[in-house]
Design a protein that fits this description.
Shape: globular
Number of helices: 9
Strand content: 15-25%
Order of helices and strands: HEHEHEHEHEHEHEHEHEE
Number of strands: 10
Number of domains: 1
CATH class: Alpha Beta
Structural class: alpha/beta
CATH topology: TIM Barrel
Mean pLDDT: 93
Largest sheet: 8 strands, parallel
Strand order of the largest sheet: 7-6-5-4-3-2-1-8
Oligomer: single chain
């Protein structure tokens, strides 16, 4: 797999999507999803200038970090169980998948113990899919004040995983709704939110056009994963709860 060629293609596509929507290509952060890829693949990608990597599972990410350059930034993008919060807080720079107030409180507890402030994104199940994790949009609004009241949590924005579809254009309403929800959150709290994490390998151009500031790409850059996906319900080979790229 030619990672350099893939990366060049992705960057060109990001630039074109930004041009279509009147945005600066520099406003989009590329999070390379390294789930299922060994550390040597991450190192090869890092040599090409990629710096932000996303892992779905705490244990897998933790195992790779020590084998990769220390300058890399690691985001947890997969579902987080409360019993993994301690390690998630310790090893990751951002948790993109906060899907309940209870989980946020647990993260806050371990951040306090670690004397660390934890940047997070709130995962929103915009499409209301029963197979996916995430806040219902209205619950984000009702719990935002309490989330912002947690002293060691910093809510930096929202994240979503769109339904898997054959045509990316079909999920544009999902991305547009998350952008609108971000605006509602900003109005409620009286302050801006920095990030919208949305868009994966099959739909990232539409996500960029709808305002994504982070896109999570795995296969579009690193190619097919070396390890099998976890057990779970599947859609065309994709675990419907998997926050991969």
């Amino acid at each position: 797999m030619d990672i350099a060629a893939n990366l060049n293609s992705v960057r060109q596509r990001i630039a074109l999507a930004c041009a279509r929507s009147g945005r600066d290509a520099g406003s989009v952060m590329l999070v390379t999803v390294s789930k299922g890829h060994p550390a040597e693949v991450v190192c090869a990608a890092a040599e090409l200038g990629l710096e932000v990597f996303g892992e779905n599972r705490v244990q897998e990410g933790r195992a790779k970090m020590g084998q990769c350059p220390g300058r890399l930034h690691w985001h947890l993008i997969g579902h987080l169980q409360s019993n993994k919060c301690r390690d998630a807080v310790h090893f990751f720079e951002m948790i993109q998948s906060v899907d309940s107030l209870a989980l946020a409180r647990e993260i806050n507890k371990w951040a306090e113990k670690s004397a660390k402030t934890m940047p997070v994104l709130l995962e929103v199940n915009v499409a209301g899919e029963s197979s996916k994790f995430g806040y219902a949009p209205e619950k984000v609004l009702s719990e935002l004040k309490e989330l912002n009241g947690l002293p060691k949590i910093e809510v930096h924005g929202l994240m979503t995983v769109a339904p898997f579809v054959s045509e990316a254009e079909k999920v544009r309403p999902v991305f547009a709704r998350l952008r609108q929800l971000k605006a509602q959150c900003e109005e409620l709290q009286g302050a801006p939110l920095a990030h919208l994490s949305m868009g994966m390998s099959g739909d990232f151009e539409v996500a960029v056009e709808e305002g994504a500031t982070m896109i999570r790409l795995g296969s579009a850059i690193l190619g097919p994963r070396a390890s099998p996906r976890a057990k779970g319900p599947t859609e065309n080979g994709f675990d419907s709860r998997d926050i991969s790229g």
